[in-house]
Amino acid sequence: MTHVSRKKLPKEMSDLMNEGFIASIKGLDTSGAKSFATNLLTTTELEMLSKRLFVIYILNEKYSITEISNTVNTTIQTVQRIQFQLVSVPKDEIQAMVNKVNGVIGKKKLKAAIKQVLDTEVRSQTLEPFRRNL
Q1: Is 0.90 topped by the overall pTM?
Q2: Which pLDDT belongs to residue 1?
Q3: Helix residue spans in 6-64 (DSSP H)
Q4: Which residues contact 40 (CB under 8 A, 6 or more apart)?
Q5: Of 56, 117, 50, nearest in space to 81 by CA
Q6: Closest CA to 69 of 80, 53, 57
Q7: 102 contacts 110 by C-beta, under 8 angstroms
Q8: Could you tell me if 29 and 39 are in contact, meaning their C-beta atoms sit under 8 angstroms apart?
Q9: Is 104 exposed, middle or buried (0-12, 13-18, 19+ CB in 10 A)?
Q10: Are 52 and 82 in contact (CB under 8 A)?
Q11: Engineering a disulfide at 28: which of 32, 57, 96, 128 sits with its beta carbon 3.0 to 4.6 angstroms away?
Q12: Model confidence pLDDT, tens digit, residues 77-125
């Protein structure tokens, strides 16, 4: 997909476009949302938005910043920046996002996936000194 964000828009136009974007995805079912995302977003854009959502999700689950960084495979600074941005977001809005993710994927499945990534990371870090000596 062509990159279209280099030049800034006037605020009024930007607000109007953002409102149109939100209105176009509001109320889509899972299938419609998936189709919308895959047709509109590049793979990188979709992954970036997905990572951001899951950083928010995992922050809400009270994992450490390092654990979140390892789980989502992003920098600690990115996790901290998202955490800082969330300070101004009402708790009920964050909870609504978390509930939506839980409803679609399931809390047990997500916790198991997070645990698997973190366990793999711990094993990798534990074996690293031995790998260097080989």
Answers
A1: no
A2: 45
A3: 11-25, 30-40, 43-60
A4: 1
A5: 56
A6: 80
A7: yes
A8: no
A9: exposed
A10: yes
A11: 32
A12: 999 999 999 999 999 999 998 998 888 888 888 889 888 888 887 666 6
Six-digit token string for 98: 């978390």
Structure tokens at 47: 């992954």
According to DSSP, residue 62 is labeled T
Contact indicator for 38, 46 with CB cutoff of 8 Å: yes
SS3 (DSSP) at 1 = coil
CB 117 within 8 A of CB 74: no
Residue spans per domain, the chain: 10-40, 47-132
- Two structure tokens written together for 78: 């990115």
CA distance 100 to 83: 19
Both tokens of residue 96? 């609504």
